[in-house]
Amino acid sequence: MKAQPLRPQVPTTVRPMPPSARICTPQNSGVPPASPGEFKPLQIGRLRLDTPVVLAPMAGVTNYPFRSLCREYGAGLFVSEMITARGFLLGNRLTAKLAAIHPGEHPRSIQIYGSDPKDLGEMVARLVDEGIDHIDINFGCPVPKVTRQGGGSAIPAKPRLVARLVRAMVASAQEVPVTVKMRTGIDPQTLTHLEAGRAAQEEGAAAVGLHARTASQLYSGDADWEAIRQLKQALRIPVLGNGDVFECWDALRMLRETGCDGVIVGRGCLGRPWLFGEFVSVFSGEEPAAPPNLGGVLDVMENHGQRLTELFGEELGVRQMRKWTSWYLRGFRGAAGVRAQLSRLGAMDEMRPLVTPLGLDQPFPLQALRASRAKGSRTQRVKLPEGYLDDLDDDTPPKGPHTADEIRAWEKALGAG
Ligand SMILES: Cc1cc2nc3c(=O)[nH]c(=O)nc-3n(C[C@H](O)[C@H](O)[C@H](O)COP(=O)(O)O)c2cc1C
After folding, report:
1. Do residues 193 and 223 make contact, with C-beta atoms less than 8 angstroms apart?
2. How far is the CA of 267 from the centre of ligand 1 (A)?
3. Is 241 near ligand 1, meaning CB less than 6 Å away?
4. pLDDT averaged over consecutive 10-residue blocks of the chain (417 residues)?
């Protein structure tokens, strides 16, 4: 089936809420919107973002269809899902599609996964030639297949290795800002963010994003905003705080409590792209619009589905849409009853007949604001190479995947991270 042309604009007909009717959880009921001049625009190298909000890189999530949807609601920086340097350099077709720069997507931001300085430098040079505006490197991946080799979230334990990899990227980046995204450490005994942040700064990183959890925590428990505050105090370059921004008010609280320069938003926007409109409102000093009712959510789902079809084709687009349906419908009355059918969705036009009987005038459910949409509450014992922590001054790059088959297996594992 050929996709219909995209609707030109995401619906923005909702009116701002009066403060008394604010839809938020109790912890945010008294949080005031930004006052004039309270927050500076976020400056990442030569990029200036008036709303200091970044869509987190999320594998299998922040592809062009979702990024473009979020961007139409709001403003900020919208980072791609992680692109493996080796896959990119080998010319893997899907990787190339995910890394492509789309007309009108500006600023265009990409996250790279890689641990070979040569690969990183080469990939950055190619992206710069293609017109990229921002490059992020993933030093936070907690997946065992990756950390077992000393990659991902194991890298920040070795500041000289961080320095070597950042140096290789910055050397090829010309004026394009390079940022680093990392966690607080491997586990509570091995916190690494301060040393790694300093190393990145000294090599010319334009900002550091901190997911304020250790790799052993995965996504469990509360993010440690105090660690964000410490990192901000330790560095001269901007610090982007990350972890547990589920409501627009959380972003203001994070900036106020930690002094960080911007926030990175991950799980909170899964199935809630309008959150980016809410950020623009509260950073402009206004109450945000109410979230859409079920009818409005269904319109957004169809819009999103159309974008997925445009990029990936009907079959892969529908397969991708299945997971989104449960995120969009989280908390709505009756949604659990149609979840199984939606998880077997065979065509985009099956969504409306399944969702409509739930009552399209249902208001957006309060309990959905902080509901867990992905990753759960597991913890792990982080797998590292034998003796990995014995020599923290070692800057030998870890082994990564090399052949096309290795890359495929690797990317599958990363998608789960
Ligand atoms: C589905 C999913 C995929 C993710 N993929 C990546 C990734 O590719 N690169 C990365 O740096 N972080 C990835 N993350 C972590 C997020 O970028 C973010 O750091 C984390 O979710 C914490 O932020 P949050 O509390 O706002 O969700 C992923 C998270 C989720 C939920």
Report:
1. no
2. 7
3. no
4. 41 62 93 97 97 97 97 95 93 87 93 96 97 97 94 97 98 98 98 98 98 97 97 98 98 98 98 98 97 98 98 96 98 97 98 98 96 90 96 94 82 64
Task: Report the distance separating Cα 98 and Cα 82, nearest Å.
Answer: 9
Question: How many C-beta atoms lie closer than 10 Å to residue 218's C-beta?
Answer: 19
> Does residue 275 have its Cβ closer than 6 Å to ligand 1?
no
Predicted pLDDT at 5: 38
Which protein residue has the closest C-alpha to ligand 1 atom 13?
58
266 pocket-lining for ligand 1 (C-beta < 6 Å): yes
Q: Which ligand 1 atom minimizes the distance to the CA of 81?
A: 8
Q: Which residue has the tokens 């990392």?
A: 182
Q: List, by residue number, the catalytic residues.
A: 141
C-beta of 153 in contact with ligand 1 (< 6 A):
no
Ligand 1 center–CA 44 separation, angstroms: 20
Q: Count CA within 13 A, CB hemisphere, residue 279.
A: 34
pLDDT in the model for residue 228: 98
8 A C-beta contact, residue 280 and residue 75:
yes
> What is the DSSP code (8-state) at residue 214?
E
Name the residue with the closest Cα to ligand 1, atom 26.
Answer: 266
Q: Which domains does the chain have, with CATH numbers?
A: 41-289 (3.20.20.70), 294-363 (1.10.1200.80)
Distance 291 CA to ligand 1 centre (A): 23
Q: Tokens representing 231? A: 């990192």
CA 214 to centroid of ligand 1, rounded, Å: 13
Nearest ligand 1 atom to the CA of 209 is 19
pLDDT of residue 417: 38
Residues ≥6 apart with Cβ < 8 Å to 263: 52, 53, 54, 240, 241, 242, 245, 250, 251, 254, 255
Q: Which ranges of 259-313 would DSSP assign to H, the alpha helix?
A: 275-283, 294-312
* Confidence (pLDDT) at 412: 78
CA distance 406 to 237: 36
| H runs (alpha helix) in 80-190 | 85-89, 93-99, 117-130, 144-147, 159-173
Name the strand (E) or helix (H) holding 414: helix 404-415
User: Which residue has its alpha carbon closest to ligand 1 atom 3?
Assistant: 58
